Amino acid sequence: MTLTVMLVDQNTQFREGLKRILEADGAAEVIAEGDTGKSILGLYEKHCPDVLLIDLNLSDGEGMRSVSGLTARYPQAKVAAISSSSDQTNVSRALQAGAEGYLLKNMGADSIVRAVEAVAHGDSYIHPQMTPWLIAEFCRLSETEERAFYQSDIRPPYYLLTKREVDVLELLAAGSSNQEIAATLFISEKTVKGHVSRILDKMYAEDRTQAVVAAIKNGWVKI
Length: 223
Fold this sequence. Notes:
Keywords: DNA-binding, Phosphoprotein, Plasmid, Transcription, Transcription regulation. This protein has about 220 residues and is an alpha/beta fold.
């Protein structure tokens, strides 16, 4: 089945060249073209293309905002950005706007066609030149998320347990007895037993061992 594509780029010659590439082997058909960000929504609603291929750095400055508005209104929209810039900031902004692909204008014809097909089929495509940055960014975000997890006052499962119950659960995971937990938290053993009982009820655990295993398995406590 032939893919339908909508092109938005302020350079008419580039659009014509891109159209020839996409339609060369009959794999795609360009059914709409535009040159401003403000034209995106109207053209999309009129033609409903399989893929919107757009240079987000348009002269009217509305490319990024228009794509964000489009993907918010039509979450099913498939958008691929195509640019002459491999700047990390541009890539990040494009992905945040809702683009599922980021192509470079100096790509070969076959690569452009494959990238558009990938986005149309629900996959993501990021030019290989950006791969090292993506890996570094993923690692950075993972480390940030992990630090936030362990530094937060109330950690998961915060929707289940109170902060004090989380404290007790962490001490249980560390192997502390009720007496040791009471001494650490400056509360009575009776209060500790009450916390443990509520933890088991909320976690649907039969005993403290089962609760601790579930907490460790789900990353709710650090040991």
